[in-house]
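Predict the 3D structure for this chain.
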Amino acid sequence: MEFIKTEIEDVVIIEPRVFRDERGYFFESYSQREFEANVRPVTFVQDNESKSSYGVLRGLHFQKGEHAQSKLVRVVKGAVLDVAVDIRKGSPTFGKYVAVELSAENHRQLFVPRGFAHGFSVLTPEVVFQYKCDNFYCRESEGAIAWNDPTLNIDWRIPSDKIILSEKDKLNKPLAQSDYLFDYNEDLYR
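Done. Predicted structure below.
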């Protein structure tokens, strides 16, 4: 596996080594030993999967407080633009984001650390999206930021009139109006 550092510390792209032959392909999608040596020690406790169609935008979501989550995300069918936004007050990259295309073809994964909001837009007719979390989901700890926050200025690579949002995501506030943010100086992994 290749571990590719991004412009934002701790957000890492993971590119597996794919072995192909006439039967198809094989790759190791996760190795705890490799992950801990190249990213950070994390114990994943929950795997999730979603299916979405073109134009669906999920995000920008996070879990607050003691329920903060790291995510290791990947696509097993189709392609998405995956985005991680730094929402740690005091961070030198506060309000900045990493955007990377994840697809069934490139087999890339993105590690989204605690203290980041996460979202993705569906670029193909259908997507199956999988992710590991290092903390259990807690409804009372949900947080979110508006997908179209003008200060973030994310190009989701879908025309705005084609974007499909959940009713809940239509109500998300911009980062500047968020009720909850993380503190860059707090150890979110203690």
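The mean pLDDT is 96.
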